[in-house]
């Protein structure tokens, strides 16, 4: 594929506020310079901030495309997240502040979490889980999810967290792919006032999961356990969590379970990608390298201080939950908010109520949420005192500049830097991001690589592009890179390291991006979604951003549809902000707005107004299905959709309009 054309010009720039910079962990370019001077030495220094059982002497062993980090060192991830804190002044510090959707609250100190993780590690022993075994976790966003993950790490088992909103079929496929031995689930999970019957879903999956020997069931639902009508407990196979925990004692009658000594390259977890683009891949992460990058990025990207109250709204079922709810923040001894439910339950102000209630200082969410907040209107955050917030983050999709500005104004009150963090399940940790005390931000740009990370833009021939559009690549290994795809190393090589023949050193991210004169990166969308209009290759993000730039628009998705003359014409799907109604006049206005903002080439041929867009369960717009609709094809695989009803109704509307 050729280079990407660049259409959007965004001139706004926000230097770190002086008041923020003054107290920031990084207030100048020293860390970036250190990383550039010697990336291996930089990462080795970051790794030494962890607690090792046996210190490593080797930093990087690299036989492209495979890399190993700190390979002769040994450590345990749960020790880094717990033991080293309870030995010091953080023992009674809040580790998790949990709020359930019905409003129940629980705070776990580091000591509480340490004790429970040890106990659950003893439970895993009793269930026969051994180092290297796989354990599936299918839980809501409750403290037991964190406990289960860390207990797996303690005994050296590889966890495979499956998002609690996934169907029985998705759970089954993931369990079977990596042959999990134990499943940890809950009777139910609260979502918009309903109880989702997780255990019942799990039972459907388990009918076809011969590798599962034991199931542990957390009682989440209020009421007596053993409500057989709701939760069936199969004798011998299924066990209530609270009963096992009550009995969990070591040989001395205590709760302590010694941590397993793990090699840095032993696997910590497998996590299946969300599947925006196709069959889920079991992404495999190591212990030492992964933890190094998760901890270092959490500390420096979020400027984490001892007194912060940190809230990442992701689900533990996604990599963001792994790296930035569990491993990164806990390795740093942070206080983390954990919320179970929906942002609009019982009202559209729930997130802001939580921020005020716990005095959240660092807030990390996704563009899909920000666009929903825009759609609902600024009156919801305006009801709350958000003055403790000092830093905002975004991850998951490109953030349209106007959504960035909305976030900046209505949540950050112009005071909080925004870190737009680009990374992937495969990268394990944030790769491109501002350092909030050091990097001037530009709305819509993830800015520059994290220290020690080497990125580049290449054309399809492998020529580097200094300024302009191209394919995003990572050009040197980084500690938290995926080690392989579970059970399919060839797919690992083919997917990530075969884009440029003869260059197995180059990691192909699958995203298009541009680089501006300041060396800033702007992610323009997935390469598979790129539009091709009259010979111009255009990233989806720029056209969508031009639409969102119009005051009536909250969210937009664009796709290319076959066109006789142009190759492709642009079809746009648009969601309006509260207080705006669809009309023919507005449609014309939006088409002109795009043409004016980024050029006539990008003028959409079709615009369809829609109350919602098809999203993956992780909240990302799924353009592949919109393409099917625009081209009048049968819909492709819809199993990873959050709400299949949305595409069905869009398809009807689209066909009615033609
Ligand atoms: P699959 O790989 O299974 O299709 P996925 O790519 O959605 O699923 P993730 O690993 O969760 O799974 O997402 C990574 C992708 O999300 C990136 O490749 C990029 O397209 C997008 N992304 C993440 N953060 C950003 C960001 N800050 N700006 C732009 N895009 C982002
Ligand atoms: Mg991906």
Automatic annotation (TrEMBL):
Q: Provide the family line.
A: Belongs to the ATP-dependent AMP-binding enzyme family.
What's the protein here called?
A: Acetyl-coenzyme A synthetase
Q: Which InterPro entries match?
A: Ac_CoA_lig, ACAS_N, AMP-bd_C, AMP-bd_C_sf, AMP-binding_CS, AMP-dep_synth/lig_dom, ANL_N_sf
Q: Which UniProt keywords are listed? A: Acetylation, ATP-binding, Ligase, Magnesium, Metal-binding, Nucleotide-binding
A cellular-component GO term for this protein? cytosol
Task: List each coiled-coil range.
Answer: none
Any idea which positions bind CoA?
191-194, 320
Q: Does the keyword Nucleotide-binding apply?
A: yes
A biological process (GO) of this protein is:
acetyl-CoA biosynthetic process from acetate
Q: Which gene encodes it?
A: acsA
The record ties this protein, via Gene3D superfamilies, to: 3.30.300.30, N-terminal domain of ligase-like (3.40.50.12780)
What the entry lists under Pfam families is as follows:
ACAS_N, AMP-binding, AMP-binding_C
Reactions the enzyme catalyzes: acetate + ATP + CoA = acetyl-CoA + AMP + diphosphate
Domain named AMP-binding enzyme C-terminal: residues: 542-620
Q: Does the keyword Magnesium apply?
A: yes
What the protein does comes down to: Catalyzes the conversion of acetate into acetyl-CoA (AcCoA), an essential intermediate at the junction of anabolic and catabolic pathways. AcsA undergoes a two-step reaction. In the first half reaction, AcsA combines acetate with ATP to form acetyl-adenylate (AcAMP) intermediate. In the second half reaction, it can then transfer the acetyl group from AcAMP to the sulfhydryl group of CoA, forming the product AcCoA.
Positions with a binding annotation for Mg(2+) = 548, 550, 553
Residues bound to ATP: 396-398, 420-425, 511, 526, 537
- The source's domain of life comes to Bacteria
> N6-acetyllysine occurs at which residues?
620
- Start and end residues of each AMP-dependent synthetase/ligase domain: 84-468
Q: What class of enzyme is it?
A: ligase
Q: Which GO terms describe its molecular function?
A: acetate-CoA ligase activity; AMP binding; ATP binding; metal ion binding
């Amino acid at each position: 594929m050729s280079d990407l054309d660049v259409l959007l010009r965004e001139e706004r720039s926000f230097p770190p506020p002086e008041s923020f910079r003054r107290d920031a962990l990084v207030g100048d370019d020293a860390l970036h310079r250190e990383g550039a001077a010697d990336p291996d030495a930089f990462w080795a220094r970051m790794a030494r901030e962890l607690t090792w059982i046996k210190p490593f002497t080797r930093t990087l062993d690299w036989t492209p495309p495979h890399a190993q980090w700190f390979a002769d060192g040994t450590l345990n991830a749960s020790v880094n997240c717990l033991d080293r804190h309870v030995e010091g002044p953080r023992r009674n510090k809040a580790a998790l502040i949990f709020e359930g959707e019905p409003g129940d609250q629980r705070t776990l100190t580091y000591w509480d979490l340490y004790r429970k993780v040890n106990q659950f590690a003893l439970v895993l022993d009793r269930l026969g889980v051994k180092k290297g075994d796989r354990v599936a976790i299918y839980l809501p966003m409750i403290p037991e999810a964190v406990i289960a993950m860390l207990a797996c790490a303690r005994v050296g088992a590889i966890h495979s967290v499956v998002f609690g909103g996934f169907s029985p079929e998705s759970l089954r496929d993931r369990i079977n792919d990596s042959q999990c031995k134990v499943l940890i689930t809950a009777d139910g999970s609260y979502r918009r006032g309903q109880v989702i019957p997780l255990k019942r879903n799990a039972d459907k999956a388990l009918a076809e999961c011969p590798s599962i020997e034991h199931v542990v069931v957390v009682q989440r639902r209020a009421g007596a356990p053993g409500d057989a009508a709701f939760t069936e407990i199969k004798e011998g196979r299924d066990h209530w969590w609270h009963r096992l925990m009550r009995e969990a004692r070591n040989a001395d009658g205590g709760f302590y379970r010694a941590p397993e000594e793990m090699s840095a390259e032993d696997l910590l977890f497998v996590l299946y990608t969300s599947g925006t683009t196709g069959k889920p891949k079991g992404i495999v992460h190591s212990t030492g390298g992964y933890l190094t990058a998760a901890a270092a990025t959490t500390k420096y990207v979020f400027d984490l201080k001892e007194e912060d109250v940190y809230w990442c709204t992701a689900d533990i079922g996604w990599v963001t939950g792994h790296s930035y709810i569990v491993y990164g923040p806990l390795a740093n001894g942070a206080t983390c908010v954990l919320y179970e439910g929906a942002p609009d339950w019982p009202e559209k102000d729930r997130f802001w109520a939580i921020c005020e209630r716990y005095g959240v200082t660092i807030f990390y969410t996704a563009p899909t949420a920000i666009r929903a907040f825009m759609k609902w209107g600024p009156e919801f955050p305006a009801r709350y005192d958000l003055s403790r917030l000092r830093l905002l983050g975004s991850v998951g999709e490109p953030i349209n500049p106007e959504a960035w500005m909305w976030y900046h104004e209505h949540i950050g009150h112009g005071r909080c830097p925004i870190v737009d963090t680009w990374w992937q399940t495969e990268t394990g940790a944030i790769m491109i991001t501002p350092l909030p005390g050091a990097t001037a931000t530009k709305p819509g740009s993830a800015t520059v690589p994290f220290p020690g990370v080497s990125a580049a833009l290449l054309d399809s021939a492998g020529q580097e592009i200094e300024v302009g559009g191209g394919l995003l690549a990572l050009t040197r290994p980084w500690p938290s890179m995926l080690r392989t795809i579970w059970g399919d190393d060839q797919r690992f090589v083919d997917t990530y390291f075969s884009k440029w023949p003869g260059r197995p050193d180059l990691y192909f991210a699958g995203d298009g991006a541009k680089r501006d004169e300041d060396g800033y990166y702007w992610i323009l969308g997935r390469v598979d979604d790129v539009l091709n209009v009259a010979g111009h290759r255009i990233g989806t993000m720029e056209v969508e951003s031009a639409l969102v730039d119009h005051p009536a628009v909250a969210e937009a998705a664009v796709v290319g549809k076959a066109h006789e003359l142009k190759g492709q014409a642009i079809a746009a799907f648009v969601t309006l902000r509260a207080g705006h109604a669809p009309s023919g006049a507005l449609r014309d206005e939006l088409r002109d707005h795009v043409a004016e903002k980024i050029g006539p080439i990008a003028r959409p041929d079709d615009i369809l107004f829609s109350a919602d867009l098809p999203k993956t369960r992780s909240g990302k717009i799924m353009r592949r299905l919109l393409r099917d609709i625009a081209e009048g094809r049968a819909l492709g695989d819809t199993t990873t959709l959050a709400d299949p009803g949305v595409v069905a109704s869009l398809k009807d509307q689209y066909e009615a309009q033609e």
